[in-house]
TrEMBL record:
InterPro entries: Nucleotide-bd_a/b_plait_sf, RBD_domain_sf, RRM_dom. It holds the Pfam family RRM_1. It comes from the Eukaryota. Gene3D superfamilies: 3.30.70.330. This is RRM domain-containing protein. SMART domains: RRM. Residues 4-78 form the RRM domain.
Length: 92
């Protein structure tokens, strides 16, 4: 079972701190990544966030946030299987 969720349809004006606050209510966050990053100069129409919890149980709970309007978008939250590092290496 994974302890990571992928959050899509994130408003471009949402910050990583706002996402950390929102998902922090659902469990202890080990790591949170928002793409493009807050300091990115690129114009974006939507962002993607990955939240890694300490406990896998938080993934199931966080899926209940799907269709919750946050800032100005309805979030989509799905479990995300982490890629095994040995399979993620480029081929020679």
């Amino acid at each position: 079972m994974t302890n990571v969720v992928q959050v899509t349809n994130v408003s471009p004006s949402t910050t990583s701190e706002q996402m950390r606050t929102l998902f922090g209510f659902l469990g202890n966050i080990e790591e949170l990544k928002l793409f493009p990053p807050d300091e990115s100069p690129l114009p974006v129409t939507s962002r993607v966030c990955f939240v890694k919890f300490h406990e896998a149980e938080s993934v199931g709970v966080s899926q209940h946030l799907t269709n919750t309007v946050f800032v100005d978008r309805a979030l989509i939250v799905v479990p995300f299987a982490e890629v095994d590092k040995k399979f993620a290496e480029p081929l020679p």
